[in-house]
């Protein structure tokens, strides 16, 4: 037995199990997407079984493409994912650079900053939509009401009353509404995933070359110049990795959208799959294949970015 045969034999059970774990669900989804498979249909009871005799071809894909929510779900998926990526990267870089300096209580601050990442998505959504973003009982409603009361009191003050009389009365935003529910999802997911970016960037900053920064200081480089030409290039690879990992995860968001809006004006592809899966398994499977294609396109695009960054 050669030196390579034994390691391959030892690895083969895990490889076979992984292939089964991946290929069986994907194959079933692909098969269901080409047949008429409806869970509850009294007119056509034969459609209630996933038989090959119910072959429909590309009919399910055509049905999904003509669905009024399909294009909107893709657009909303890209809006949510791109917004979260932009905010988490910006906030992650700024906070990581800020806490990279030595100060009293640095360890406690780092633990507190990372802790939101360990909150379950459903719990995160419930806390934000009820305790913070609620226009009546949440912190938003309390803050807006307090500001309005303060402005009302200052309107009667001598000397400055005329100025505050020009201020309009603030109205709390209902983040459960059709137009704003996507923004609520972006806010709460950004809060939860920014610590992940902070952790990656903070780890990378530990290996930054301090001699280069000292030389830049001696040459009279400003703080912004050091950040622009030394710190940001050093964070290029971690930023690319954070973008790739988060994009894959955020394309499958479901719990936050369900809790915030129940899909009212705020749907992505996973939520659309859930709606179809209540009865029409064929359409849900076709939507799942579209989601796989979209995820692969995004992953390939981001992997090219990561590969290009690593080669530089």
From TrEMBL:
Q: Which PROSITE patterns does the UniProt record give?
A: ABC_TM1
User: What keywords sit in the KW lines?
Assistant: Cell membrane, Membrane, Transmembrane, Transmembrane helix, Transport
Where does the record say this protein resides?
Answer: Cell membrane
Question: In what way does this protein cross or attach to the membrane?
Answer: Multi-pass membrane protein
Pfam families attached to this UniProt entry: BPD_transp_1
Give GO terms for biological process.
Answer: transmembrane transport
One cellular-component annotation, GO: plasma membrane
Domain ABC transmembrane type-1 stretches: 74-302
> Transmembrane stretches, by residue range?
12-39, 70-99, 111-133, 182-203, 235-255, 281-303
InterPro entries to which the protein is assigned, alphabetical: ABC_transporter_permease, MetI-like, MetI-like_sf
- Per the record, the major location class is membrane
Family assignment from sequence similarity: Belongs to the binding-protein-dependent transport system permease family.
- Record protein name field: Inner membrane ABC transporter permease protein YcjO
Q: Which gene encodes it?
A: ycjO_2
